[in-house]
Design goal:
Length: 406
């Protein structure tokens, strides 16, 4: 079959699906994206640059859609060129978030499109104004609503959609949900797996060492930012490190911003390190930035307690992988996390906004070996039942067959 994938950041959510499809030499796979250095065998890339807006002023509320419309225009032109060169896909698979898919139906009206619907924005009840430390003024609400313009235009195309969790599906209006299928994403259970021996061996990241007798608390986010709870995690550190002299902490994440506001002249990590200066032993806390994947998995396998925090927002891949590694997890008690974690069965849920309770749950898991072991087993069992990558790939292939007949 001929596949066309579209996502501005190659490979996006499609790494494992691309590897699966690329293993069959009968498949021809094209991927339209912006340039980066990533490569996957068997995938040919078609690159475009982010379109530059005209100099004419655009209303601030409409800026995101202006860029999305330009992306749609550029990608449709690239599809036209592919068509002239003799490439017509059997299916187009891509992410609706950036507008790239909006005009592809004008090029190939009879080609099915499977679009990824990640998040429907609201001005209340979700991430906006969840955290009172970062209130949003009402004059920003029109921009929040406008972030759904591409979502709504994509739904108007009456194509098939997908999303990875029930919670994300229920963010969309009731009338839209029948058009969006839940296809749960998974983890590589053969790679992300428990390794009980890891806690009996020395563990190091660079010059940071954790001895076999020491406890390791871990935290992971793509970037260290409030949306993923960097501030409440760091405010929990003084209690954790004061109560347990045998604890070390690794907080993985970059200094960029994936969601929410940026700081001027500083990073969120630096900001909260300054706020908490002198309140905890910094020599026992490592913030290494983003880790190579093998080191990241080794760290999860070594972890004595793993903390996963997020606003009511899309859950990270790291949560799935921590469950697969059999981590004893402390997670924020929001619906996007409680869809994965049942309190007391495969993790503990705590209020996101209360650092003392985050610290208390971490200390509880560090001090109760029986509970820790039970939650580890529950995490792995959940992953085996719900997060097997092979199940995800099978569901994707069934959906592709439903849409193409092949």
């Amino acid at each position: 079959m001929k596949y066309l994938f579209v996502h501005q950041n190659f490979p996006g959510q499609y790494l494992h699906l691309l590897r699966h499809l690329g293993a069959d030499p009968a498949n021809e796979i094209m991927f339209i994206s912006e340039p980066n250095t990533n490569q996957i065998p068997g995938v040919r890339r078609v690159l475009y640059s982010t379109p530059t807006p005209d100099q004419e002023p655009v209303h601030p509320v409409a800026r995101d859609f202006d860029i999305a419309a330009r992306r749609a225009e550029v990608v449709a032109a690239m599809c036209t060129n592919l068509d002239r060169l003799g490439f017509k896909p059997d299916i187009v698979i891509g992410h609706h978030g950036w507008g790239e898919l909006l005009n592809i139906g004008d090029v190939w009206p009879d080609v099915p499109v499977l679009g990824y619907f990640e998040f429907y924005y609201e001005t209340n009840g979700q991430d906006v104004d969840f955290d009172p430390q970062f209130p949003m003024s009402r004059d920003k609400f029109p921009k929040i609503r406008a972030m759904n313009v591409v979502n709504l235009l994509a739904l108007a195309l009456r194509q098939r959609g997908q999303t990875p969790t029930e919670w994300q599906q229920t963010r969309y209006p009731q009338w839209a949900r029948p058009h969006i299928k839940v296809i749960r994403e998974g983890a590589r259970l053969d790679v992300c797996r428990p390794n009980p021996a890891a806690r009996q061996q020395p563990f190091s990241i660079g010059d940071f060492h954790v001895a076999p007798g020491e406890k390791l608390v871990t935290y992971v986010a793509r970037n260290l930012e409030p949306y993923r709870g960097v501030h409440v995690m760091m405010r929990a550190l003084p209690d954790i490190l004061r109560e347990r002299k045998d604890v070390k902490v690794i907080m993985v994440g970059g200094d960029d911003v994936s969601y929410g506001a940026r700081l001027v002249g500083s990073t969120w990590r630096e900001h909260f390190q300054t706020e908490l200066k002198g309140q905890y032993d910094e020599s026992r806390v490592l913030m290494p930035g983003q880790l190579p994947y093998d080191d990241y998995v080794r760290m999860l396998q070594r972890s004595d307690t793993h903390v996963y925090l997020t606003y009511p927002f899309v859950a990270s891949w790291s949560l799935r992988e921590a469950l697969a590694c059999g981590c004893a997890i402390v997670g924020s008690d929001v619906e996007s996390v409680s869809e994965f974690i049942e309190h007391g069965k495969n993790g503990l849920l705590v209020p996101f906004l209360e650092p003392p309770k985050i610290a208390g749950a971490v200390l509880k898991l560090l001090g109760d070996d029986k509970l820790n072991k039970r939650l580890r087993a529950g995490a792995r069992k959940y992953a085996e039942q719900h997060l097997d990558m092979n199940d995800y790939l099978a569901r994707m292939m069934r959906t592709i067959k439903d849409l193409t007949g092949r």
